[in-house]
Design brief:
With about 500 residues, the chain is of the alpha+beta class. Helix content is about 45%, strand content about 25%. The chain is elongated. The protein folds into three domains: about 5-30 and about 180-375; about 35-170, Jelly Rolls (Sandwich); about 400-504, LytTr DNA-binding domain (OB fold (Dihydrolipoamide Acetyltransferase, E2P)), CATH 2.40.50.1020. The chain contains twelve helices and 20 strands. The protein has helices at about 5-25, 80-85, 175-180, 185-200, 210-235, 240-265, 275-290, 295-315, 325-340, 340-395, 445, 495-504; strands at about 35, 35-40, 55-60, 70-80, 90-95, 100-105, 105-110, 130, 140-150, 160-170, 400-405, 410-415, 415-425, 425-430, 435-440, 455-460, 460-465, 470-475, 480-485, 490. Helix 5 packs antiparallel against helix 6, helix 6 packs antiparallel against helix 7 (about 275-290) and helix 9 (about 325-340) runs antiparallel to helix 10. It has a six-stranded antiparallel β-sheet. Strands 15-14-13-17-16 form a five-stranded antiparallel β-sheet.
């Protein structure tokens, strides 16, 4: 396969187009007032503490580490007049692996689960929650927000357990999350089509694992996407977030592993499998030791991508076909991950991976087509050789067949037959010298007794190819065969291509 300048321009044009689509959500107007600076007091007390106490500290809400703790948090929220003028009802959104109770300007807004000083008394809250914020309770300017929170049902101390705290137009939390995933329907469709098409192709290959490497990579990306969008499908209690993050990182690692395996088999087919597993283990090591699950998922894909890049770079040195274009594509993909791993996973992941798989599917489809063409060519040569051998055998040792005519059985040499013509329940057998025999049988049944040197050129005619002189094509699309004793036989339009192919 050769990559033309036009095909490469078309491919990278698709990359740019999909990239623009993927970034539209990030360009939308942000109508949320985000709350960041807070005072936190880690305390098991059920009553609100004195936030002036020296044990309370100023921090960012996003830096709070509530694992196996309970705490009280206070924030001063400045609400602009523009926010109050918005026609939509307002809500206070909170997202994190916590149970919480919220108080706005001294009044209870509501509970998300039940915060407590221990796991027995705590009721896990939803990962994403929203509280209706009555306009009469909102002041233009400064407002007080107090949150009682706890986390006693998590098994993993997440690096980023708190996701956001903001005021904005009231909406069901899964709807807010789902908006960020709607554009992923396009890459999801691409991955599903490629997964099923190449999956069916892969199971028919001699090396099934090699044939299924790309479809399995696409499958685990699809599963990762489904694990991601669960947040936009339903509200779940915060302990499930750990399972979700583990699945996202696991599926990302499996996608990267099968990508590395595909490149390994393509550019290093003769190297022992032990080197593959050793290399993959080293490449996935950063993902194992990284504490942040967002970074863990990014590293699980980045490591194998860098490994694949090194293999294709070595392929350039060895002058292997397609090594240059593979190296460029893998380099760009790795740069995207390195440039912004968190944004990569949240915003660009599925478009980036889908575009990578478009390239891999495109190359693999062309490779399969080349293999099919090669097999077809080899089959044609084999059929031609078989025909030559059968023709030679027929010339050296002509077949003898029995003919039933007028109740008598005759034995004739097939080499003497020029052509046969259907005549109802009989067959007219035309021999050399103008002699004709009438055989008691239908043409289709008689055809089964003849050697391969005889060809059906019309529903009423069988011709011995050894006696064909010329094939003449008529304007109607039909044809005529000229035989050795000046006979002419019609060739039907439907069979014309096969006759021409066989005679060539």
């Amino acid at each position: 396969m050769s990559y033309t300048k036009t095909s490469l321009i078309r491919f990278f044009g698709q990359v740019i187009l999909c990239w623009i689509i993927a970034t539209q959500a990030s360009l939308a107007e942000d109508k949320f007032t985000h709350i960041k600076d807070v005072i936190i007091c880690y305390s098991d007390a059920a009553s609100m503490p004195d936030f002036e106490d020296a044990r309370c500290t100023k921090t960012s809400f996003y830096d709070i580490k509530p694992h196996k703790k309970s705490a009280w948090v206070k924030a001063t929220v400045t609400v602009a007049d523009e926010v109050l003028k918005q026609p939509e009802p307002l809500g206070l959104f909170i997202s994190g692996t916590i149970s919480s109770s919220l108080y706005w300007n001294g009044s209870l807004l509501g509970h998300n689960g039940k915060p407590a000083s221990n796991a027995m008394n705590e009721i896990p809250g939803k990962m994403d929650a929203v509280f209706s914020l009555p306009r009469q309770q909102i002041r233009a300017g400064k407002n007080s927000l107090v949150i009682h929170l706890s986390n006693h049902h998590s098994y993993i101390a997440l690096k980023s357990p708190i996701h956001y705290l903001a005021i904005g137009p009231y909406n069901h939390p899964p709807n807010v999350a789902l908006k960020n995933y709607l554009s992923s329907a396009i890459p999801l469709g691409i991955l599903l089509v490629g997964m099923f098409y190449f999956g069916f192709q892969g199971i028919r290959q001699e090396n099934i694992l090699e044939g299924l490497a790309l479809p399995l990579g696409a499958l685990f990306t699809v599963l990762q996407l489904f694990a991601e969008i669960t947040r936009g499908l339903f509200q779940y209690e915060y302990p499930f977030q750990e399972i979700r993050l583990i699945l996202v990182a696991l599926f990302s690692g499996l996608t990267g592993s099968f990508l590395f395996y595909y490149i390994f088999q393509k550019f290093c087919p003769n190297i022992r499998s032990a080197y593959f597993f050793a290399g993959l283990l080293m490449l996935q090591l950063p993902a194992f030791i990284e504490p942040s699950f967002n970074d863990k998922a990014a590293f699980a894909m980045l490591g194998p991508t860098i490994g694949a890049f090194l293999l294709t770079s070595h392929g350039i040195y060895k002058q292997k076909p397609h090594a240059k274009i593979y190296t460029v594509v893998l380099f760009l993909f790795a740069v995207i991950i390195i440039a912004a791993p968190n944004a990569f996973l949240d915003t660009y992941y599925y478009y980036s991976v889908a575009l990578l798989f478009i390239f891999l599917f495109w190359d693999h489809a062309t490779l399969l087509e080349e293999k099919r063409a090669l097999l077809l060519s080899e089959q044609k040569r084999a059929d031609k050789l078989q025909l030559v051998l059968e023709s030679k055998q027929e010339n050296d040792n002509p077949s003898i067949i029995q003919i039933s005519e007028a109740g008598k059985i005759k034995r004739i040499n097939t080499k003497q037959i020029i052509y046969c013509q259907a005549a109802g329940d009989y067959v007219e057998i035309h021999l050399k010298g103008g002699m004709t025999l009438l055989h008691t049988a239908r043409l289709s049944r008689f055809e089964q007794t003849l050697p391969s040197s005889f060809m059906r050129v019309h529903r009423s005619y069988l011709v011995n190819t050894h006696h064909i002189l010329e094939l003449v094509r008529e304007t109607s699309g039909q044809g005529t065969l000229k035989l050795t004793e000046a006979q002419t036989i019609p060739v039907s339009r439907r069979i014309m291509p096969q006759v021409r192919k066989a005679l060539s």
